[in-house]
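Check this:
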Amino acid sequence: MRKLGKILVTAALAVGAATGANAQTTTYQAQFDQMLGTQERAPQTFEAIYENALEQTIAELADGSKGRIGVAAVDLSTGKTVSVLGDQLFPMASTSKIAVAATFLEGVEKGKWSLTSEFPLLLPRRSAKFSSPRAPVYEGQYMKAIDLIEIMITRSSNPATDALLRVVGGPEAVNDWMRRQGIDEFSIDRDIATLVRDDGEYDPAQHIDPRDAATPKAMLELLTGLYQGKYLSSESRRVLLGAMSRTRTGKRRIPALMPASVKVSHKTGSLNNTSSDVGILETPDGRAVAVAIYVTGQGSRLNREAKIAQIARALHDGYSAQSGQRKRVWTNAEHNGG
């Protein structure tokens, strides 16, 4: 009997504890429902929310229905940024040549070679797509390094790029330089001869290939650091930014719709179904805007270039409107006419 009594008491206590816990839970639920109600709640809106009118304008221009479009920009006098797919990888194409030049110029600063050192152009031999890990090349005319940089940037010369890429130690050396600057979402995996020969393996409008790719934000970080003097000496910056200010390619891209008073220093890129342009916009009032625009698809190269021009002009106008009558602010280290 005593055992039976203990069992009954224990059971009663357990039921009481459970009842108390349930009552407490019910009380909490009642308080919650009293404060917030019991009806199901849907989001107030399914529309995208933008921080400002400029961000909305760029997002609308960078509509991806006809191919991925990546944009990153920053007003260097205010630090205000705009980004659309800024963290997504895009084919760099020839925009990577800025990093190749920067890596070589660091070698000049360290005394490994000079701007008057001469190196041969590396010209591609005819070979079938994907027939070898590296496309065959042969040495051509020897040129001074300063001239190789000039035609690599202003005319987007591939043989000049591969010449300097071989000097610095190949793609790995450029990637290492970028990592040392704290820029991770950037990778050169092939020389230009191989990249061009094997172009077309994937459609960049629909597929993300991590090889020879960077995010718009990574390229923006490179441009910003170069312009502000974080990575190279003033002389090296003068060489690189000066060449970018004399770029002959991409007249239908960033420069196309810019006011005549805006100085554009930029580098273009083109591969199968992708066009790009990255650079610095300098305005008469001393402001500078760094921009990186990568456009895929859109039906044709002309359409991609028109899209780049529209986005670049919208960025210029939007940042100008935001600046208002702010006091003139210089945002770059001195580079003496670069």
Observations:
- Residues 6-15, 325-330, 334-338 have pLDDT under 50 and may be disordered.
- Residues 17 and 23 are 10 Å apart (CA to CA).
- The chain has one domain: 53-323.
